[in-house]
Design a protein that fits this description.
Blueprint (H helix, E strand, L loop, with lengths): L18 H14 L1 H25 L1 H10 L1 H16 L6 H6 L1 H5 L3 H4 L9 H11 L3 H12 L3 H29 L2 H6 L6 E2 L2 E2 L1 H38 L3 H20 L1
Antiparallel strand pairs: 1-2
């Protein structure tokens, strides 16, 4: 298919794997580049935080929804970095910005509208962003790659949400433990939830906690989906044969010269 991402099959051992092992491969790819991915996620989050801050002045609760809704935008530069590093190309932040046309497009608007709540978002994102198929070709390609792995993509999304919730509650617990009672009273923490509804301070704390948890979790969420995608391509396209065939082709001229001698 034109536009399909060529992969360096010798950089990572690409072979058919169980779904859990494929996700683990993606998590290892993310962990290998974790500091850079966290930085990319944090920088991508800044415009969303600025937009949320503007909305917060009008409706605090809606500001958190804005941050949640536009989270797929943060995933795109993360996937671009992961795919380039799989090819052995370490790109700088400046290159990432220059190449924004490659990761900004590709079903971006659809991922923020009709497919916003796609249950296997990180698994299907490489199909949209890297392969850039459209129409019936995209639907056929998605069905083919989803066969036998779509459920794992859904479970990965569920795991990502659970870890984000754990981090959010953990951050509240950590600050509750570190801050003295006088600080909480100064923030009017006891009155954050009352008859008048949810206080603005609680919405602000939730926004900050969610932004931090998303920056920490999204690299692994995108990496896990990328691992599933690579595994399905391996199953369909037999990438495990490519390195062996390449080595045979490189060895053949030497064998012919030895026989001639």
């Amino acid at each position: 298919m034109p536009g399909r991402l060529p992969m360096n099959a010798e950089r990572v051992a690409l072979r058919p794997r169980p779904a859990a092992e494929a996700i683990d491969l993606g998590l290892k790819l993310a962990r290998a580049s974790w500091p850079r991915l966290v930085l990319v996620a944090a920088l991508a989050q800044l415009p969303l935080l600025a937009l949320a801050a503007l909305v917060f002045l009008w409706q605090p609760g809606l500001a958190l929804l804005v941050l949640l809704w536009f989270q797929p935008t943060v995933d795109r530069p993360l996937l671009h970095v992961l795919s380039r590093e799989l090819l052995g190309q370490r790109i700088s932040l400046r290159q990432l910005v220059r190449e924004r046309g490659q990761w900004w497009t590709g079903m971006h608007l659809a991922s923020l509208s009709v497919f916003r709540f796609h249950p296997a978002r990180s698994f299907t994102l490489p199909i949209w962003q890297l392969e850039r198929a459209s129409g019936s070709a995209r639907r056929a390609r998605t069905r083919a790659l989803n066969h036998g792995a779509g459920g794992s993509g859904v479970l990965l999304s569920l795991m990502g949400s659970v870890f984000e919730l754990i981090l959010i509650f953990g951050l509240f617990g950590l600050f509750g433990w570190l801050l003295p009672p006088s600080a909480w009273e100064g923030l009017n923490a006891p009155g954050w939830i009352g008859p008048g509804g949810v206080a603005d301070e609680l919405w602000a704390a939730l926004i900050v906690a969610y932004a931090i948890s998303a920056v920490l979790v999204e690299p692994f969420y995108v990496g896990g989906g990328f691992g599933l995608y690579l595994n399905q391509r391996c199953r369909l396209e037999c990438w495990d044969l490519e390195p062996a065939l390449r080595r045979l082709a490189e060895r053949a001229p030497g064998q012919r010269q030895a026989e001639a001698a």
